[in-house]
């Protein structure tokens, strides 16, 4: 079954022949290779590009390596890298005229000195280059700097709910329940049993994602990054900081020597590998960022749930994580909002802070969003919208609830909408 990834396909189409290397990044197993080698390749053919002018090469495919005269029996598959001269000779034979050629390279980190090779190809007027990679270095968010400003990144997320529901056999409510538990990794979405999905997610988290970080940074203590991931997974959507997490280690893990500095460093490793994302607080009135405390969310909620053995399925926190990912999928920069006011308390002026779950920014557009699992009465509604009342600008303010609910507005212009309606309508914010 083919999973449609139209959002990313359109991004690739818009970037065709723009003079940059198109670098498709994202967490392992999110569908980067499929996007490039199946969906985009099919688009090129359908748009009239001759198949002889599309050069596809996967550096982890034994059949492709044979084209270079490399046989897997003769190499260490884990450590071997393709010599640039052999690959460039192969490419030069394929480029046999002056028409436009499209080069689609998968697992390009297995090409030695790939940055230099690709920057060389940028100087060829008739080459348009697209690459993916999956080792720990290529997964890092700093990969773009390797191309000295000539890289154009397309970041791919696991399946959004709108993508997931297109391949799910069941009702909308059943689909959301499934998505909330097992997330949106494409291979997992196509599996049919809970046992398969559970085993897949747990194995990927332990043996692929964390292993990448351990190998990249040569971590001596494998357990530390693993235990930190468990603690973060238990506290998604809650304000935290390295000191608080260090204290949690002392309390739960009985560890006394894990400094906040080390915790902060490991959080950066997890974020650079796209396993988690930090949401920084933004003071709306003072118009400045507050570096700590912050919130942490998982790139895929299924991986988060697998990390804690599917035990803490708190719908409030999971829903907030899903909304955060959806906003980023739609291209927004997402912060946690803070509104600080002064008020009188027993004849004394005090400062009070009101939190807004998300400030979503895209260019000149801004939306304030609250994630509220339930709004059973008017008192709860006032509680959820109190922070909105303190904001004096005219940007749209939205409350998302778990029940099925079409968008409606109150007398203040605040919107309330159900989570599924929000996730399935890409234009609902507008």
Key traits:
430 residues, alpha/beta, 8-stranded mixed β-sheet, 5-stranded parallel β-sheet, 13 strands, globular
Order of strands across the widest beta sheet? Answer: 7-6-8-9-10-11-13-12
Q: What is the overall silhouette?
A: globular
Fraction of helical residues: 40-55%
**Low-confidence region ranges:** none
Query: Can you count the beta strands?
Result: 13
Based on secondary structure, the structural category is alpha/beta
Radius of gyration: 24 Å
The average pLDDT value, as a whole number, equals 92
Describe it.
With 430 residues, this protein is of the alpha/beta class. The protein contains 17 helices and 13 strands. An eight-stranded mixed β-sheet has the order 7-6-8-9-10-11-13-12. The chain has a five-stranded parallel β-sheet with strand order 2-3-4-1-5, sandwiched between helices. Helix 8 crosses helix 14 (301-307).
SSE diagram, text form:
Blueprint: H1 6-14, E1 21-25, H2 32-46, E2 54-58, H3 62-67, H4 84-94, E3 101-106, H5 114-121, E4 127-132, H6 136-139, E5 151-155, H7 161-164, H8 172-182, H9 186-189, H10 194-216, H11 222-234, H12 242-253, H13 260-272, E6 276-283, E7 288-298, H14 301-307, H15 315-329, E8 333-345, E9 348-362, E10 365-371, H16 378-389, E11 396-401, E12 408-409, E13 415-418, H17 419-424
Parallel strand pairs: 1-4, 1-5, 2-3, 3-4, 6-8, 10-11, 11-13
Antiparallel strand pairs: 6-7, 8-9, 9-10, 12-13
Helix pairs in contact: 1-2, 8-14, 10-14, 11-12, 12-13
